[in-house]
Amino acid sequence: MSAAYATFGLAPATRAGGVLADGGYQVHRDFVDFVVDGRPLLFRLSDLDAVSPLASDVPPAIFTEQVRGLLRETEPPLPGGRFVIYGCPECADLACGAVTAVIERDGEDYVWRDFAWQTGEHADPELNGYHGIGPFRFHGPEYRATLAALVADTGGPSAARRRVLLIGARVAVLARLAAALRTIGIGADITQDATGVPAEELRGYGAVAFGRAVSEAQRACVMGAFERAGVAVARVDGLAPVVPLLVAQIEQALHRGPLPGRLTCLAAADGTADVEVTSACRVRVTAYRLDRLHRTHARDVFDGVLEPGLHRVPLDPEAVKGESFVVARTTGSVLVRRVGK
């Protein structure tokens, strides 16, 4: 293979959902990302909350049509030979903005070029182009085999176990948590005892979350039931009865991607939060605290683009007074930590 070629691959990816500090919801999306020269292509786009057209919730017929487009077996959906590479994770409307590129055949090879940000029918690569990305030339047989494997068996990417079992003493909190999880695309069930639950039902869960009032003996009993069923399930020990915080903990536990997210480290103590990212990306850091009356207070303490490396974000003393926690999220990953004193 010539040195002019880039390698092409695919990897499962996630746009983490969540309940935001302002009360809004961010929908969870599982999708397949493009991996170019061993690195997810989305990671090259620093301030972009988007998913590829190869999403797990796309109907099989449409999913197959998207793959055929990438193989240039169908006509481009946009003028100039352009295809959507990443689009809005909430509605997929071009008006919200999308990353598009020209995809063309050159003999046996495939070429992706002229990446641009597009919000209408026509792109302007000079004004809105990603001039540091591409062009990429992919070896035809490798490219075709990789995409064909996506639809060979199931017509789409396999879905992870996006379901969680909730166990706790505060039924009202569990009910609100279950409703929030379902809103962002995660199934949730509430129980007090997993003993006697059929193994085939337990195998449908990717995580089990315990409230703070659940004893260690009860937790061990539940985890034992999963172990006997042969299920490797993530355990979430709820930090506090704060729904957005618990949602973030569960999102973190359910991450199953083979590639690490861009957000690799979060620590919080002594009035600062240390955040480490592997590539430039937009990061939002939110602080949650419980006051003496156990009321919840939430505040976004940082929202901006961070360059690769370790960054120290100052925490307002009022935002982390008493029992407090921080949540850091970026496209594809979320981390949660208790604030140390």
Class per helix and strand makeup: alpha+beta
Total number of domains: 3
Number of helices: 7
Biggest beta sheet attributes: 4 strands, antiparallel
So what's the overall shape? globular
| CA distance, first residue to last residue | 55 Å
CA gyration radius, whole angstroms: 22 Å
Contiguous low-pLDDT stretches (5 residues minimum) are 154-159
On the 0-100 scale, what is the average pLDDT? 88
Secondary-structure element series: EEEEEHEEEHEHEHEHEHEHEEEEEEE
The overall strand count is: 20
Strand order within the widest beta sheet: 6-7-8-9
Percentage of residues in helical conformation = 10-25%
**Approximately how much beta-strand content do the residues carry?**
35-45%
Give a written overview of the molecule.
The protein has 341 residues and is α+β, with helices and mostly antiparallel strands. Helix content is 20%, strand content 35%. The protein contains seven helices and 20 strands. The strands form six sheets. Strands 6-7-8-9 form a four-stranded antiparallel beta sheet. A four-stranded parallel beta sheet has the order 11-10-12-13, covered by helices on one side. Strands 17-16-19-20 form a four-stranded antiparallel beta sheet, covered by helices on one side. Helix 1 runs antiparallel to helix 3 and helix 4 packs across helix 7. It is globular, with a radius of gyration of 22 Å. About 2% of the residues have low confidence.
